[in-house]
Amino acid sequence: MSTEESVSAPAPGALLLCRAEPDSVAVVAPLLGEPMPLVRAGDGWSVLVPEGGPWRDGGEPVDRVVAGWAAALAVGAPWPVLALWWDADRAGHTLASGFRRPVGYVWLANGTPAGEDEAMRTFAARLGLDPVLDAQSLDRLTRAEPDAGRGPGAARAGAGARARLRGLLAVLTRAGVDLPAGLDPGEGADRLGAAARAVPGVRWTEAAGRRPAVDGCRPAAWMPWTGGPGARALAVAQMVTGLPLTVWGLRRRSGGWTAAGALLVGHGALGAAHGLSRRP
After folding, report:
1. d(CA 22, CA 210)
2. Residue 55 in contact with residue 67, Cβ under 8 Å?
């Protein structure tokens, strides 16, 4: 690889957009197993900025890691999670919501669509986007450009794929998404982390194994460790969902999905044990 190619190739990176306020996200974020910057990302939205340890140290593809993280967060909370990801060859997104199967879309580095149109329609429906205006905008993102494949420099830099992600974010602005300055698709984890740390009001999520404490805010009543209404049911649901995820991840040798499944099993088991200990 030439010096020019190595410089222009984008570093893998990701953003986890949660349709919830930062206080609510901070309660669930320890499921991911590592602390991350957490900032507001518009009206009713927050964003977690991963530092990229799993795909830097373990060689796990960024898309698999963040897909597993999104699934773990969405199962543990009553709001959807949208993972945006990119590397030198592709970019895409994965939407996880509750116990439903995640949906996503992929573009090659030069912007060539490599996903299914039905997945984008399902994405719009699950987020409650406008079935006419927003659906038309999303449909354009699934069409190949006439000059796709030309301009090897742009393909190496992933400019086309980044433009598609920006187009997706432009549609989501009508749903309230407003990413802080510097959190741009295509940037590496280092730059994203630096940008997130510069945002006023940024907080760091708790590490795994600790109960998150948010100043001035009690954990939501549906979290497994609270013993509130539905808490024990959620704990059992997390274990039931986590077991097949772990097995599937082990079979696929996917560290991201294996970790997500193990986190759900462990978190659900702790919640169930806590709920039993609170019974009279």
Report:
1. 18
2. no
Where in the chain are the domains?
A: 3-204, 224-277
For residues 148-164, give the mean pLDDT.
58
The percent of residues above 90 in pLDDT, for the chain, comes to 43
* Residue from 39, 115, 93, 101 nearest 71 by CA: 101
**What's the number of CA atoms in the CB half-sphere (13 Å) around residue 249?**
25
Burial pattern 222-236, b for ≥16 Cβ within 10 A else e, equals bbbbbbbeebbebbb
- pTM (predicted TM-score): 0.74
With beta carbons less than 8 A apart as the criterion, state whether 178 and 18 touch. no
Question: pLDDT tens for residues 95-139?
Answer: 999 878 899 999 999 999 999 989 999 999 999 999 999 999 999
Structure tokens at 218: 């009690």
